[in-house]
Amino acid sequence: MKYRLLFSCLALAGLSLNASAADAPPAKTSTLTIGAGVGVSPRFAGSKENQVGLAPLLDYQHESGFFASTMRGVGWGTETDVFKFSAALGARGERSDKKRNVLGTGGGSDELKGMGKVKASAVGLFSAGFKLGDSAELRAALELPLTQRENGRALHLGAELPLLQGKQDSLSLSASASYGDAKYLRTYFGVTPTQSAASGYALFTPKAGFYKTELNLAWTHRVDDHWSVVTTGGVSHLLGDAGKSPLARRKTAPEGAVLLTYTY
User: Fold this and answer.
1) What is the value of pTM for the model shown?
2) Nearest-5° angle of CA 147, CA 153, CA 156?
3) What is the total count of domains within the chain?
4) Residue 91 near residue 120 (C-beta atoms within 8 A)
């Protein structure tokens, strides 16, 4: 249901990762950022368990607006003083019903035993942002599956407020809400008759609606012109039918990440 765990956590600085394709504007000069970090989040939306993920970061931003990134996908973006937009090709990760631990990196969950696997899919990401003066920014992102279309579509809405803007340190607070269509909610929070018989979870057919909110704090420390440390921390909460799902063993959960980057 998510991209790699680390990048899901890093998205706490704005929207969910699935909505982050517009977060980096076209650069006046081309840049390449590499990095690595660690993040923690629930094994799946509603899981009682947390998982830790380790992952590298590779992000290329061309001055024309083209970008290729392990976090943002492959796409193009542009912006003015008050508006920015991007379109990208990304991926939505699979959800496994078996717990895996490889080199300290978690994946899947035994809590979903009998629920079967939700296959990974390619997605189109369309994002827009509106700046409100020199302070807050409103964001919206649409996530459209290009494969495995039965997994459904999602819309992410959010806002970010800078709390501190210094030469070396910046601090921002963000909030977001995510909406899923009926297919999305049934895929990630529903329980079909077949799944109920295999897993023991009660039959559940959720309707379309808002399924999650997030509140997050992000701190960026610039060591010098090239090195930076990004730290995020926050909490997510399941709403509506998602929170009522038999799979939602925990409605509210912490998320966070730390990343060291180098920009050329």
Assistant:
1) 0.88
2) 130
3) 1
4) yes
Single-letter amino acid code for the residue at 78: T
The three-state secondary structure class of 232 is strand
| Alpha-carbon span 129 to 158, nearest angstrom | 9
Q: Tens digit of pLDDT for each residue in 72-109?
A: 999 999 999 899 999 999 999 999 999 876 554 556 89
Which domain does 245 fall in, by range?
5-263
Conformational region of residue 240, where left means phi above 0, alpha means psi within -120 to 50, and beta covers everything else: left
Burial string for 31-64 (b: 16+ CB within 10 Å, else e) reads eebebebbbbbbbbbbbeebbebebebebbbeee
How far is the CA of 42 from the CAs of 9, 34, 185, 251, 253, in angstroms? 10, 26, 18, 10, 7
pLDDT tens by residue, 198-245: 999 999 999 999 999 999 999 999 999 999 999 999 999 999 999 999
CATH value at residue 122: 2.40.160.40
Strand residue runs (E) in the chain = 31-42, 50-61, 66-69, 73-79, 83-92, 100-102, 105-107, 121-131, 137-145, 154-165, 169-180, 209-222, 227-238, 252-263
